[in-house]
Amino acid sequence: EDKVVQSPLSLVVHEGDTVTLNCSYEVTNFRSLLWYKQEKKAPTFLFMLTSSGIEKKSGRLSSILDKKELFSILNITATQTGDSAVYLCAVETNSGYALNFGKGTSLLVTP
Amino acid sequence: NAGVMQNPRHLVRRRGQEARLRCSPMKGHSHVYWYRQLPEEGLKFMVYLQKENIIDESGMPKERFSAEFPKEGPSILRIQQVVRGDSAAYFCASSPYGDITEAFFGQGTRLTVV
Question: Which candidate, A46, A108, B23, B93, has a CA 20 to 30 Å from the CA of B55?
Fold first, then answer.
């Protein structure tokens, strides 16, 4: 059975800290890994990763994939209170329409 | 261009009643996906539909659940004779083509069964 595991499940940091969120997976027919941010509403897309070792960056957020070790990390530098959210990791397999989601990491950034 | 619209946002049903959840995809999107998020769990795929067709319903419970996406109007997820275990957030996503990685999610409907 396909599995996506995120860690930690929750995290509390102070504004300005750097955080690293982890996502490991065991799936058949891997196609891509996606990161979403969920703030009590619609999950919003952050990154899609398909190739190992290539970092994707958007402002203070960055992510990288290791297909050999089957994991990805999401880094957030200089965190702000607006970064408080649940971060979801999902793996796309060859079906092309069914994502396998992890349980998410709940991040709280305190002032 | 409005995003994916789901309604209602919150729905309370008594055990045994029917729940109807609606999803209006983004303009130009003809592919719809439904996911369910149980408490303390990740989102789980339920069903993938194109206009008037169910493409894959492998994630749908075998009984009481059905989905449709008619030629006109929103996609509907119907749950008959709801039970407490159906309480969850139900998310819909839509995409222009059959590629979930290009999909946008709606804000979800939170169903509470009392």
Answer: A46
Burial of B20 (0-12, 13-18, 19+ CB in 10 A): middle
Q: Identify the residue among A99, A103, A105 best suited for mutation to test binding to B, counting B beta carbons within 10 A and taking the highest.
A: A99
**Separation CA A6–CA A85 (nearest Å):** 14
Instruction: Count the residues in chain A.
Output: 111
A chain contacts of residue B99, beta-carbon cutoff 8 Å: 96-97
Q: B42 and A97 in contact by Cβ < 8 A?
A: no
Q: How far is CA A48 from CA A34, A57, A84, B72, B101, in A?
A: 4, 11, 21, 32, 8
Query: pLDDT by residue (tens digit) across B19-68?
Result: 999 999 999 999 999 999 998 889 999 999 999 999 999 999 999 999 99
Distance CA B79, CA B19 (A): 5
